[in-house]
Amino acid sequence: MLTTHAVRHGGPFDREDQRRNAPAEPQRQRKIIHIDMDAFFASVEQRDNPELRGRPVAVGGSRERGVVAAASYEARAFGVRSAMPSVTARRKCPDLIFVKPRFEIYRDASRQLHDIFARYTPLIEPLSLDEAYLDVTDALDGLVSATAIAEEIRAQIHAETNLTASAGVSYNKFLAKLASDHRKPDGLFVITPRVGPQFVETLPVRKFHGVGPATAVKMNRLGIATGLDLKGRSLADLRRHFGKSGSYYYWIARGLDDRPVRADRIRKSVGAENTFFEDLFTFEAAREALQPILDKVWRHGESAGRRGRTITLKVKYADFQQVTRSRTFAAPAAARAELERRSVQLLGQVFPIAKGIRLLGVSLSSLDGEQTRAIPQLQLAL
Asked: Where is the composition biased (Basic and acidic residues) (predicted)?
């Protein structure tokens, strides 16, 4: 009881816990740039086909099934978003033009981007084909200003690819990511150490990288709507409600994030998962809920030019108990339908169930194919 009392009221136990979990103090302040291409897939299609320019475009899916992989800004004005079912997108925008993805073209454009990044720093951490962190603390061209480097990179991207990019500049990865989102599209925003903590306080938690839709709803139910609300919670409280992620939320609410930019990490798996607002109880409902997850897994495997022989199904129940089912095949799935068939077989192994399912996920490992550099494992909430 003494320990609980001390933690709750910020006593010595709380301070010691914070010291153990605080981000390590860097030797000197980093200069981080986050580059995020604007509606990348859709912009490439509009660049290459003049008839699509200025019109609402959705890459992926179809009129009848599937999900939107990317939407042009003209389509986003109607509420069309990536990962949205195609039928929903069509209802929101009757004039929406569906375009089949051309992943080899997107990979070529991505390679051009990384050639540009490499002129300034070897510390490049790609998150996907169109998004990366750059540590320019010791820039190769001798420029001291990270803002000036970001401006040069954006200008070179436009000159060499005829595409636009948004950039965020800050002293850590979390804030650089927030900054790049702040002035989209075709924008640049800088968050300095002086304004970083106050900037975080004003934002809704749903805009925080690492806080998915389901977590944002949970935070809102706990009375946490903004960064300031999150900052008002103790470390112990956040860890009680959010487990290990609670420590991350505690520090980002203070504008602190000591994660380094990690270059040349090889992706070992690719996956997607979704937390449902209502629990699933039947095999039919779970199989239907699996479809957009499979679409996303297949799309990311195709975009990276890699396929996996091992399929793992993740199931989290309403009481947070988690089980996995996995199988390794002699060869990767050759088509999305084959990936679905194998995943549904694994899903059948967990039925019948005695409690509702709150989360489903699918991941591929034992990857083969093109060895794309520096793309870490993806776990993408829908």
From this structure: 11-22
User: Any catalytic annotation for residue 201?
Assistant: no
* pLDDT-derived band at 69, boundaries 50, 70, 90: confident
181 within a domain of the structure (yes/no): no
Residues in the annotated binding site: 36, 130
Arithmetic mean of pLDDT, 189-205: 95
Q: Label each residue of 17-70 as H, E or C.
A: HHHHHCCCCCCCCCCEEEEEECCHHHHHHHHHCHHHCCCCEEECCCCCCCECCE
Burial class (CB in 10 A: 0-12, 13-18, 19+), 14: middle
Residue tagged active-site, from 74, 131, 273, 340: 131
Q: What is the CATH number of the domain that holds 333?
A: 3.30.1490.100
For the segment 353-375, the average pLDDT, to the nearest whole number, is: 74
pLDDT score at 27: 56
